[in-house]
Write a structure and sequence with these properties.
Elements lengths: L1 H16 L1 H21 L4 E11 L3 H5 L8 H11 L3 H10 L2 H5 L3 H14 L1 E6 L2 E8 L2 H58 L13 H31 L4 E3 L1 H20 L5 H16 L4 E3 L1 H40 L3 H38 L3 E7 L12 H26 L6 H5 L15 H38 L1
Antiparallel strand pairs: 1-3, 1-6, 2-3, 4-5
Helix pairs in contact: 2-14, 2-16, 5-7, 5-8, 8-13, 9-12, 10-11, 14-16
Keywords: Coiled coil, Membrane, Transmembrane, Transmembrane helix
Protein name: Chain-length determining protein
Pfam families: GNVR (PF13807)
Length: 490
């Protein structure tokens, strides 16, 4: 603890010896800094608030039907394009900024870049945003914001029409391109289909001719099998039917009963009750019938049906042969071109995509026409200036009190840093203890007696305090607004 106390006392004694250097450093830093702060020009800010909203009736009606022209999207687009180089060049010509650059193109481009950084466009709430600009001239700041509002309003109408014209031109060019592609695709598809129509599926998604031919052959085989089965059943029935029956009344009844039995057998099985009853009736009539034998009409009828069945079978065999021949022909074509289906799918896929895009572009064009008509006959965007820009009388920058205080603190810090560095570089001995620390014998020391030098030291202290007081007075002068007076003087 004693060592710390000694070190502190040593630093304080060194600081006192070099107090004039510290005062000079503080005055030098503060004077330079305050001169710089005083020379900074005032910055005046002008601000405008603008409200933009879409029509509350027309926009919902057009949503989904016309191209989307939502107001928020247009405002966002305007915020991006308002500070474009052409717009800022127009702004320079509309204000006194033109006098600052003259005909120097380099200076104009530099000013445009500076304006892009200095002009602030911020969104405050839904559909409400502010345009802010600062300049040493309050009138020029107001004029710049006014010019931006004018450009915004003109651009809101002109840019929308330009964008609509560009959209129309783009859609027209794209439609022409897709129309040519669609015609080429249709031609390739039609030629390919005409070449391989037998093995390709139908246009409506139905089966191909090859599939139809195969199905036809299968159906003919099934029908032929059924016809043969019917022919065999008729032949068996013919065998069980006598060619002649006994004459007379009983014979006539017998023939009728036998015809009825033949008809029932064609409809039912032999175990059916009606068939059993009819068979018993035939047997009873055959035992009781008498007279001469006559031709059995049932036999003749069954025989005619058998001839009919044979004719149907012959016709079916002929049709089956022709169907198999057609199937084999188409099947040979399919085997000769195994990749036709895949190639047609690729052609059909390309055609479908091109046609879909073409139809989509047609829809877009009609929607754009509706949107253009809506923009021409209705005010879709409502534009209103809530707070117009005004000339500011109080500067918003620089913050001189803060800067002057910062300069004062910097001067004090510079003085302290200078004292600390000089104390560290000082190799002199402040007292006898410093000498004894070298390990050398010290005989003694001489004390300084009071004399006229003491009064000189008192005057020096007064001057030192006065210097500090003067520094604070100058600080108070600048805080109280002396910077404006200083700028007027210079």
């Amino acid at each position: 603890m004693e060592n710390v106390k000694v070190l502190v006392l040593k630093q304080m004694r060194g600081a006192w010896r070099r107090r004039w250097l510290a005062i000079a450093a503080a005055w030098g830093v503060c004077a330079l800094g305050w001169l710089v702060v005083a020379s900074l020009p005032n910055q005046y800010e002008s601000q405008a608030r603008v409200y933009v909203d879409a029509d509350a009736v027309l926009t919902p009606l057009l949503r989904g039907l016309a191209a989307d022209t939502n107001a928020l999207n247009q405002v966002d687009l305007m915020q991006r394009t308002l500070l474009s180089a052409p717009n800022l060049d127009k702004l320079i010509r509309m204000t006194d900024l033109e006098q600052r650059v003259g005909t120097d193109q380099g200076a104009r481009e530099a000013l445009i870049q500076k304006l892009q950084q200095d002009i602030k466009i911020k969104s405050q709430a839904k559909n409400l945003f502010t345009i802010t600009y600062r300049d040493p001239s309050p009138r020029l700041a107001r004029d710049v914001v006014n010019a931006l509002l004018t450009i915004f309003q003109e651009g809101n109408v002109g840019a929308g029409r330009t964008a609509m014209d560009n959209a129309q031109k783009f859609l027209k060019d794209q439609l022409g391109t897709y129309e040519r592609q669609l015609r080429d695709a249709e031609k390739r598809r039609a030629e390919f289909r005409a070449k391989y129509i037998d093995i390709l599926p139908a246009e409506n998604g139905g089966a191909s001719r090859l599939e139809t031919a195969r199905a036809n052959v299968e159906n003919l085989n099934l029908e032929l099998s059924e016809a043969i089965a019917r022919r065999d059943a008729i032949a068996a029935q013919l065998k069980s039917t006598p060619a002649s029956v006994s004459g007379g009344v009983g014979g006539g009844l017998y023939a009728q009963a036998q015809q009825k039995l033949a008809e029932l057998r064609m409809r039912f099985t032999d175990q059916h009750p009606d068939v059993i009853a009819a068979r018993r009736q035939v047997e009873e009539l055959s035992r009781g019938a008498g007279g001469t034998s006559v031709g059995n009409p049932t036999y003749d009828m069954i025989k005619l049906r058998l001839v009919d069945a044979e004719s149907q079978i012959a016709a079916m065999k002929n049709r089956l042969a022709q169907g198999e021949k057609e199937r084999d022909r188409i099947d040979s074509i399919a085997r000769a071109a195994p990749g036709v289906a895949a190639e047609y799918q690729n052609l059909d896929r390309d055609y479908t995509v091109i046609r879909k895009n073409y139809e989509e572009l047609l829809t877009r064009r009609e929607a754009t026409n509706i949107a253009e008509a809506a923009d021409a006959k209705a005010d879709k965007i409502q534009y209103r200036v809530i707070d117009p820009p005004e000339i500011a009388f109080i500067p918003v920058a620089p913050k001189r009190t803060l800067l002057v205080t910062g300069v004062l603190l910097a001067g004090i810090a510079a003085a302290g840093a200078l004292i600390f560095v000089l104390n560290q570089l000082d190799r002199s001995f402040a007292n006898l203890d410093d000498l004894r620390s070298l390990g050398l014998p010290v005989i003694g020391g001489l004390s300084k007696l009071p004399n006229t030098g003491a009064r000189a030291m008192d005057r020096a202290g007064v001057i030192f305090v006065a210097s500090i007081g003067a520094l604070l007075v100058v600080y108070a002068f600048f805080v109280a607004g002396g910077a404006a007076l200083f700028r007027k003087v210079i």
